[in-house]
Amino acid sequence: MVHSYRRDVDVILERDPAAHSRAEVMLTYPGLHAVWGYHLAHALWKSNHQLLARSLSSVVRMLTGVDIHPGASIGEGLFVDHAMGVVIGETAIVGDDVTMYHGATLGGRSVASGKRHPTIGDRVMIGAGAKILGPVLVGHDSRIGANAVVVRDVAEGSVIVGVPGRLLASHGHVAGPVEVDSLLQRVHELERLRAEQADFSI
Asked: 12 and 25 in contact (C-beta within 8 Å)?
């Protein structure tokens, strides 16, 4: 567990250019505090102390703005950047080295028992405000654009944008978060111009 805590700090130093020291990360990153709180709550959950686990998760949510159910299964190296509003549901499975930005949700679409939350592969980036809903699978090395809504499986190495989520690119070059946001803005601009042309033609 000590190794896991150390890696949680290291991944932030690797992925966030605004992070300047281990001390800064450990003291000032609420996303890190949320992940650490999850580790403790998850251990309690697995030890059949569900009420205590949920209570700890509630305290962590109040302190960090991040809601991670202690029953979720999360791999190593999760980076929750800017923290606020992130939600990870009970039956979610998150792979290694995943990055989630503020407002991202791994939620359910039904109240049925069983697997009802997403499974996220390794090295996936989930943009700000993105919603991945239901027992869908997001393949390794995929990028989910800001505010995208994903309700279907995503193949490995895909870039998904829009509502509902649409495939922008796959395999080969995988766009980073800045590229995805730029492309999404361009899509919105083209849709606005098309709407204006339609109004003019009428």
From this structure: yes
Domain segments of the chain: what residues?
1-84, 116-202
Contact between 188 and 195 (Cβ < 8 Å): no
Q: Going by C-beta distance under 8 Å and a sequence separation of 6 or more, which residues neighbour residue 113? A: none
pLDDT in tens, 87-134: 999 999 999 999 999 999 999 988 888 899 999 999 999 999 999 999
For the 1-84 domain, the top CATH level (class) is: mainly alpha
Round to whole Å and give the CA distance between 158 and 143: 6
What is the rounded CA–CA span in Å between residue 31 and residue 29? 5
Q: What is the CATH number of domain 116-202?
A: 2.160.10.10
Residue type, 132: I
Angle at 192 between CA 191 and CA 195, to 5 degrees: 85
Q: What is the CA radius of gyration of the chain?
A: 18
CA quadruple 58, 114, 101, 123: dihedral, nearest 10: 130
Would you place residue 181 in the very low, low, confident or very high pLDDT band (cuts 50, 70, 90)? low
CA distance 182 to 165: 16
Q: Counting beta carbons within 10 angstroms of the beta carbon of residue 105, is it exposed (0 to 12), middle (13 to 18) or buried (19 or more)? A: buried
